Amino acid sequence: MIKQLFKQIWVERKQNAWLLIELAVVFFFLLLMTDFLWVKLKNYMEPKGFNIENTYMMKLKMLEPIAQHYVNPEEITQTSVEDLFTIVERIKLHPDVEVASVSLFSEPYSMGGFWIGLRADSIQTPSVRNRMVTPSYFDVFQIRTPDGKPIQVQETGYSQLVLTEDIGELLFGEADRAIGQEVFFEGFEGEIPQPNKIAQVCNLLKRQDFYPYEGAYFEMLSTSKYEEWVKNNDITWTNICLRIRPGSARHFEEHFISEMGDRLRENNLYVASIVSSDKLRDDVVGKMIREDVLPMTYVMIFVLITVFMGVFGAFWLRTRQRRAEIGIRMAMGANNTVVWRSILVESLCLVSLIIIPAFLVYLNMLNADILDTWRLPFTAGRTLIALGSALLIMCVIVISGTFWPANRAASIQPIDALRDE
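Given the sequence above, the corresponding C-alpha cells read:
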C-alpha cells in the first residue's frame, strides 16, 4: 500500500509540488519554533542556585545640599562606608528582618557588573562575573555549597573569594580542591598580581531564569576594601539586600519605613527605595516572557491554524477531484475504512518527503551558530527533541486537516461517484 501511494504521489508530482513546498516550509518553521521554545523551557526549569522568596533590595541616595536634613561635610566625623554599615546594623534590629547584606552589582536579576579572568598556575579562565558582597549575602539568598551546606566565610584581613562550582573545577579539576588555594586576577599590563584566597565553593548560579549557568566569583567586601572602592566610585551604586522572616511580608511592606523613620538615614546617606526581588524578577524575566516568548508562541499558533486550513483545503479539493477513482476502488471491493485510511496515509507520506531536507537546513543553522547555542549547546539530544516535537505537531495538523475530507470521501456511494463522472 505504501509503495503504491508513493507511486501515485510521483505520478501526480506536478499537482503535489506546491503542497510539498508548503509542508517543507511549515516543517522547517516548526523545527525553529520548537527549538526556540525548548531552549527557553530547558533553562527556565533548571535550578537557579538562589532563592529570592521573602527578599528585598534597598537602593541608596545622598541628600542634596538643598535638602532639609543635609549635613555639611565639615560636620561629618565618619566615612560614607561607616554611614552605610550603621544603617545596615539598624535594619538588622527590625523584628521582621532575618539577615541583611551589602552588595555591588551582585543581586539576582541584576544584569550589570564587570567580568575578569582568574588564573591559577598555568590555567586561566575566560572572563567571569565579579560579585562584591559581604559574607551574609549567601544567607540572604540561600546560596549553598555543592553538597547543600550553608556557606560560612569569616572576615579576615586578606582578600577572600567564593567561586562557583564550575570555575573551581576548571581551575583545580575538582571543586573541593579549590578551597584554601590562591588565584590571581588577570589585571592590567604592568600591575603586580595579588593573591586571593578561596574561602569556599558555591553551587552553580544563573543571572536570570532564561540564562544558562555562568561562572562567577564572589569577592568578600571587607570595610577596608569597600573604603578603597568608594574612593573611585559612587557609594549609591551599593545595594542593601535583606531576607525577612517567613510570614512577615505584609507587615514589612506596610510598616517598615514608618517604623524605621530617620534610622534609615545616617548623615547624608539614606535609603531611597525598597523593592522586592519578585519585582526585580518580573522586570527581567516577565519582560522577556511578554516581549519574546509569548509573541513567538502566538506566531506559532497562527501558523499552525493557517497550515491546518491549507491542508484541509488541499485535501478537500484532491478528494473532490478523485471521486471517480474512489468510486472505482469501492466498486472493486474497497470498503470505507480502506479508502479513509489510504487518504490519511497518503498525507503522511507527503510529510515524510519533506522531513530530511528541512531537518538538514536546521542542522546547518545550528552548526553555523545562527541559532542560539549559548543558552543550550548543539547536541544530539537538543536536535532530537526539536525533530520529535516538530514531527508530532506536523502529523497532528496534517491528520486533523485530512480527517474530514477523508471521511467525506469514504462515505460516498460508488454509483453516485461513477454517475457524476
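Residues 277-321 form the longest helix (45 residues). Try to locate this feature in the C-alpha cell string yourself.
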